[in-house]
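Posted in: Structural Biology > Protein-Ligand Complexes

Title: Requesting predicted complex, iron/sulfur cluster in pocket

I'd be grateful if someone could produce the C-alpha cells for the following input. Sequence and ligand are given below.
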Amino acid sequence: MSEPLLEVKGLVKHFTLNGDLVSRIAGKTQTVKAVDGVSFYIHQGETLGLVGESGCGKSTTGRLITRLIEPTAGDINLRGEDMLAFSPKRMRETRKDVQLVFQDPYSSLNPRKTIMDILSRPLEVHNLADNWHEKRERVLELLNLVGMGSEHIDRYPHEFSGGQRQRIAIARALSVTPDLVIGDEPVSALDVSIQAQILNLLRELQEKFSLTYLFIAHDLAVIRHISDRVAVMYVGKIVESGPVETIFNEPLHPYTKALLAAVPEADPKKPPPRLTLEGEVATPIDPPPGCRLNGRCPLATSICGEVEPPLLEVATNHQVACHNL
Ligand SMILES: Nc1ncnc2c1ncn2[C@@H]1O[C@H](COP(=O)(O)OP(=O)(O)O)[C@@H](O)[C@H]1O
Ligand code: SF4
Ligand SMILES: [Mg+2]
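-- Reply #1 --
Done. Output follows.
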C-alpha cells in the first residue's frame, strides 16, 4: 500500500504538575503521562477511530497532531515529511492541511460574528479569496456543502441548533481544503438522531473530497459507525488497533473486551469475547512500571507488573499490546 497520509511514531506528551521551584526542591513534582508512546498511521481517504475512556489522552493526541501543543518526544509525519522539523513558514502553510473540529462548536464559533464572517476568516488568513464577492461565493458554496441554505449566511451562531452549529464548524474546517480532519468528539454533545445525520454528512464529504479522518470519541457506537480502523487507548497508550470489524467482533486485548462488555449486543448470535475488569481506570500521574492494566486485569501474571507490553502485529493490520494473549 502507498505511504500513509499521517504517521505518528512514539508520540509522547508529559505534563509536569507542581513544576515550581519550591515543589521541585521538595521533590513534589508529578508527571502526567497523558500520551506515552503512541504510534499509528492513517491512509488517505481512511477514517481511524481513536476510542477510550475520558482522560486516556485522546484530545492531547489530536492537539499534538495539529501542533496546538508540542510533543515531549516522537515523530509526526505528514505525507512522509517530518512535521516537527518544518520551519515556522512551512508550518503556517501546513496548518490549513490539518483541521480540528471540536465537541462544542458554540465555544469555537465567535457569538458576535455572522456565519459570513466566521467562514470567510480562514479564506482571508490563507489568502484563498481575492475580494468580497469571491469570499461570499465560496461561503455560500460551503454552506451548501454542509446542507445549509444560503438564507443563513448573515445570521449569528446563537440562531442555530447544535447540529447546525456543528455543520458550520465542519464548513469552516473544509473552507481551507484540508487533507486531514481531526474530529475531537464532534458529535458527543448532539442527540442520537442528529449524531447520525452529522456522521453521514462527514462520510459524504469524505467521499467527495477524499478526506482523511482521525475521529476521536468515547462512544463505541459512534466509532463503529464511522471508522475503517480503530485504535483503542488506555492511560496514554494504544492497547489494540485493527479493522473496525476485527475490533468489534474479535477483540483480543483484555481492555477492548471490557469496553465492549459495557455496550448492548449488536448481534446476539455472535457475541464478541467479553471480560470484566476490577477497580477504576488507572491514573496517568506517575504510573507504575509494567502494563497499565495490571491490578485490574484478570489475566495478569508477574511480568505484567514489570515489563510494559509492546504493541505487536498479531495478524495483518491487527496489533495488540498484551503479554498474555
Ligand atoms: N495542560 C495539561 N496539564 C496537565 N494535565 C493535562 C493537561 N491536558 C491534559 N491533561 C491530562 O492528561 C490526561 C489526558 O487528557 P485528555 O487528552 O484530555 O484525555 P481525553 O481526551 O481522552 O479525555 C488527563 O489526565 C488530563 O487531566
Ligand atoms: S499485559 Fe498483563 S495486565 Fe496487561 S492486559 Fe495483558 S495480561 Fe492484562
Ligand atoms: Mg477529550
